[in-house]
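Progress note, sequence design subtask.
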């Protein structure tokens, strides 16, 4: 009986050990960034390195060419594979790997990168250029673009955990091309060596290997610039609920400094019509826009465009993106026009109605005057609004960590773990 118990204990220990190994493997020491891909990737790439370069056939690992220090390689796609004029013929070879010596960098199309470059002629005939780079090198570069090296270290450390988690959980976005992330705001902005700094490097080193977990799974740590005072629950932006992406107060953003803490813009009827048409929405002449519901944090959940040929409603994040606004937290004030027709002509002026709820535009009725000087008083006889004043707060999607809030918390003495645990409900760091 004792023996049986011991065996069960051993099996249980083995299961726990295996679980730890599986968990640890979620950290990868290398990530891949798509530098050129798709229909506008061209058909050539230029490479060089101050340490020299070795060109491999990536399918079998044989060396095709050894470039000298500073020697520039112009690699071009041919009809059956690759070639570098006067240097090597790689016709029939569809996958190349170009590597500088360990510890040196290379220059690809004028930009300096760590790691190495993978080049492929894809089955659809397009060129694919991917930078394989150490995860921490990648994060040190992203920090310089997504924050600034001048920001407080604890904010940079919080951002480095977000960037590390993000790249390691972003597995689906570019899977057609087989790389993890692109170098733009679509994923995370990555500038190669140029955007690294000793401060970003220090923030990465001091959080080395640390990831944020929720229920033992690596969490998706989203971030954005400014919340305007309160972050948003993910379900009000992207639709589905995630336990650690809830709305939290964001009291340390500095209203004077934080980017777009408050903002206001004016859009003309024509500008809105153009944005609707760009989004494939056709409702004829735009008459008005109404905000139909808002979240507790003040972000618009549903709005409706009213046109001569129908209406079109949008929800959640689309309320921001369809108009190209800084954030989803805004109010719209239709700016009606009062038109006074007198014996000497027509005079136009904006007209607002005021109530305890605030100021809003008026449209769609007319007054006939008996005064001989004013023959007619029209308030938008067509019923349409000419301009929309939009007042808002915050910059970005509002889900997860506010960068300006993280900066404010760091300036007020909070450490990076406290910052992350504030923005991500129930987050564990290890
Ligand atoms: Zn991307």
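Output:
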């Amino acid at each position: 009986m004792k023996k049986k118990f011991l065996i069960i204990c051993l099996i249980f220990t083995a299961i726990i050990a295996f679980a730890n190994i599986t968990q640890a493997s979620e950290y990868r020491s290398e990530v891949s960034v798509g530098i050129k891909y798709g229909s506008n990737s061209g058909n050539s790439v230029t490479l060089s390195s101050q340490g020299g370069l070795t060109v491999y056939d990536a399918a079998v690992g044989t060396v095709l060419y050894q470039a000298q220090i500073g020697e520039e390689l112009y690699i071009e796609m041919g009809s059956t594979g690759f070639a570098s004029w006067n240097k090597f013929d790689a016709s029939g070879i569809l996958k190349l790997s170009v590597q500088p010596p360990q510890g040196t960098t290379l220059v690809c199309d004028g930009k300096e990168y760590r790691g190495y470059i993978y080049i492929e002629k894809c089955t659809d005939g397009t060129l694919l250029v991917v930078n394989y780079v150490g995860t921490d090198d990648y994060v040190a570069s992203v920090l310089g673009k997504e924050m600034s090296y001048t920001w407080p270290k604890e904010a940079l450390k919080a951002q480095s955990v977000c960037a590390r988690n993000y790249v390691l959980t972003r597995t689906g976005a570019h899977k057609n091309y087989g790389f993890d992330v692109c170098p733009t705001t679509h994923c995370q902005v990555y500038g190669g060596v140029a955007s690294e700094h000793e401060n970003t490097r220090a923030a990465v080193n001091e959080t080395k290997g640390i990831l944020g977990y929720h229920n033992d799974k690596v969490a998706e740590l989203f971030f954005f610039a400014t919340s305007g005072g309160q972050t948003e629950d993910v379900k009000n932006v992207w639709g589905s609920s995630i336990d650690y992406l809830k709305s939290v107060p964001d009291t340390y953003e500095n209203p004077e400094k934080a980017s777009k803490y408050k903002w206001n813009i004016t859009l003309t009827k024509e500008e809105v019509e153009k944005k609707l048409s760009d989004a494939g929405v056709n409702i004829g002449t735009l008459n008005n826009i109404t905000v139909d519901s808002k979240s507790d944090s003040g972000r618009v959940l549903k709005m409706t465009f009213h046109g001569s040929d129908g209406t079109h409603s949008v929800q959640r994040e689309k309320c921001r993106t369809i108009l190209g606004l800084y954030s989803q937290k805004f109010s719209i004030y239709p700016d009606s026009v009062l038109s006074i027709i007198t014996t000497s002509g027509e005079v136009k002026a904006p007209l607002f109605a005021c109530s305890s709820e605030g100021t809003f535009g008026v449209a769609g009725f007319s007054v006939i005057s008996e005064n001989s000087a004013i023959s007619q008083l029209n308030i938008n006889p067509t019923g349409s609004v000419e301009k929309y004043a939009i007042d808002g707060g915050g910059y970005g999607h509002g889900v997860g960590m506010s960068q300006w809030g993280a900066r404010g918390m760091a300036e007020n003495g909070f450490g990076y773990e406290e910052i992350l645990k504030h923005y991500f409900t129930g987050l564990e760091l290890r």
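The pocket of zinc ion is lined by residues 173-174, 181-182, 186-187 (CB under 6 Å). Work on this subtask will continue into the next period as scheduled.
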